[in-house]
Amino acid sequence: MLKILMADDHEIVREGLKKIISRTIGMDVVGEASDANQLLALLDRIECDMIILDISMPGIDGLEALNIIKKIHPEIPVLILSMHPEEQYAVRTLQEGASGYICKDSVTEQLIQAIEIVSSGRKFISPKVAENIASMFGTEGDGLPHEKLSAREFQVMKMIARGMTATQIANELFLSRKTISTYRSRILEKLNMKSNAEMTHYAIKNSLV
């Protein structure tokens, strides 16, 4: 029996996922959470074979949760579930350790296939994601500006765009305020921007927050 943990802040989404999974013999949802903190608590007491993780949740978001999960349980494959178009997040999540990325508007058709592929140790990618990955091997100017950011820079950029102060970010990431200011300067330089307002506008425009 394939044991699955899932995290999504919408109960109706979790119920829909369980309904789809329940139709397949050999799969069972052994725990569910409405945010990342609940998911991490479940991981401490429930054994699972894979995780289905929503990328947009209150508090610790899916990307931050993915980083934590891969540090403490690198052996557990994680399938990212998102309402965002694949071109916004898919490549980034794969780079940070996810085993697959599936859009919520495709979940009915692709979920079981994605679970089977990910649980077998392979990566689940749609043709669109494959195209995006292939484009990374093109010229240096290809891709969106935020794709130049490191994983930590990308995380800090999203937190700034959500309106968090340098002190709040430093406290949440257990870093110094000076380190956060350094990250901010690097982000602005890489994005060719001059202010948090520009950064926030960019993040909203590209559906990153």
Short description:
With 209 residues, the chain is α/β, with parallel strands linked by helices. The chain is 52% helix and 13% strand.
Structural account:
The chain is an alpha/beta fold. Helices cover 52% and strands 13% of the residues. The protein is built from ten helices and five strands, in the order βαβαβαβαβαααααα. A five-stranded parallel beta sheet has the order 2-1-3-4-5, with helices on both faces. Strand 3 (50-54), helix 3 and strand 4 (78-82) form a beta-alpha-beta unit. The longest helix is centred in the last third of the chain and has 15 residues, at 177-191. It is globular and about 55 Å long.
Please outline the helices and strands.
Layout (H helix, E strand, L loop, with lengths): L1 E6 L3 H12 L4 E7 L2 H10 L4 E5 L7 H11 L5 E5 L3 H10 L4 E4 L3 H13 L7 H9 L15 H11 L4 H8 L3 H15 L4 H10 L4
Parallel strand pairs: 1-2, 1-3, 3-4, 4-5
Helix pairs in contact: 4-6, 7-9, 7-10, 8-9
